Amino acid sequence: MIRPPSTFYPGAVRPLISLPVGLLSMAALLEQESFPVAVYDAQVNLACPTHRVGDTIVMGDNWEAFAEKIRASGATIIGISCGFSSQRDNALRAASLARASHPGAIIIVGGPHASVLPGDLLLPDSPIDLVCTGEGEYTLLELARLAGAGGDTCAIPGTVVRCDGVVRANPRRPAISELDALPFPAYHLVQMEHYFELFAAGFADRPLPFFADSHRAVSVVTSRGCPFNCVFCSIHLHMGKRWRGNSAGYVARHLELLVQRYGVKHVHFEDDNISFNRERFEGIISGLAPLEISWDTPNGVRVDTLTRDVIEKCRESGCTYLVFGVESGNQRVLDTIVDKKLDLAVVREAAKWCSSAGLDAMAFYVIGFPGETPADMKDTVDFALELYASFDVKPHLFLATPLPGTRLEKILLEQKLIVAPLGTEQLAAMTQGNYRVDGGSFTGAQVDQIMKGFFSGYRRVLITNALRFLLPRPRALARVLLLACRVDSPMTLLERLFSALQLKHSSLGRRK
Question: 164 — alpha (psi -120 to 50), left (phi > 0) or beta?
Answer without folding.
Answer: left
